[in-house]
Specification:
2 copies of one chain form a homodimer. Chain A has helices spanning about 15-25, 40-45, 50-60, 80-100, 105-120, and strands at about 65-70, 75. Chain A is mainly alpha-helical. In chain A, about 25% of the residues are buried. The mean pLDDT of chain A is about 90. Chain A binds a DNA duplex through α3.
DNA sequence: CTTTCTGTTATACTGTAACTATAACAGATA
DNA sequence: TATCTGTTATAGTTACAGTATAACAGAAAG
């Protein structure tokens, strides 16, 4: 698993970490049952503090993407809840699409963009 | 223009304000050339500090949604730059779709969601 | 010209969140 | 026993959000 943190980003490190792990799962580079590196190990690899990794893992656990196994550590385990996910996504999409809409990005443009992104994601 | 601020949200007030104004524009409830309330007036209406409104307006100016006219104040003025907007949107969509994808939300589901949101937006 | 609106800028303070730094504890594994 | 794991606690720094005044300059209206 390759993690790239942008230390100049205005996005918090633990959020970048969470996002990238979610993308890894969606892209099927991480699979159900895979173990994530230990918090100490990943922290050292990236060059950040253990607690920052721990926070990312905690968020992923709370959001239902991993479960914590005392023996193995953090394990990819998706808790699917389509209904809630749809509502969440709609809220997130609403602002992003508004910005595009003001810039004359058409519905067709967005559909094409969605298709492009789905090309990267093999999770089924 | 109706603004609803959630003071319990983890989203900054000036970001909520910015987002709602962008949505208002996309939904054609605010049009090119419309003036926004003065920073002092809107701050009083919402019950927040002038500088928080000022920050939202500054962000909107920097992002090319309004321009500041000394005589009229903040005026809706879209600076369309489709290419940059497409790349920005793709980055924003990538994480949102990854989350959905893990929850077995299909490409068709997302397309339907996009259509729903576009129903709200009349800006052309 | 004066008053009053506008945006803009500067300064200072509080509160909170992000991040780091140690440290310690308990369970699992070799 | 030694070493790995997650978990928790505490403390410190840094940065940002938000508030509070204050002042300045340009524009508009009296």
């Amino acid at each position: 698993m390759i993690i790239e943190i942008d230390f100049n980003s205005d996005e918090a490190i633990y959020i970048q970490l969470r996002n990238q792990i979610i993308v890894e799962i969606a892209a099927a580079r991480l699979h159900e049952g895979d173990t994530l590196p230990s918090v100490r190990q990943l922290a050292e690899t990236i060059g950040i503090n253990m607690h920052t990794v721990n926070k990312a893992y905690s968020v992923l656990k709370q959001e239902g993407f991993v479960s914590i196994d005392r023996r193995k550590g953090a394990v990819v385990a998706i808790d699917p809840n389509k209904v809630i996910a749809m509502e969440e996504m709609k809220d997130e999409l609403r602002v992003a699409l508004a910005k595009g809409c003001c810039r004359n990005i058409s519905k067709a443009d967005v559909h094409a963009l969605v298709d492009e992104i789905f090309e990267e994601y093999q999770y089924q």
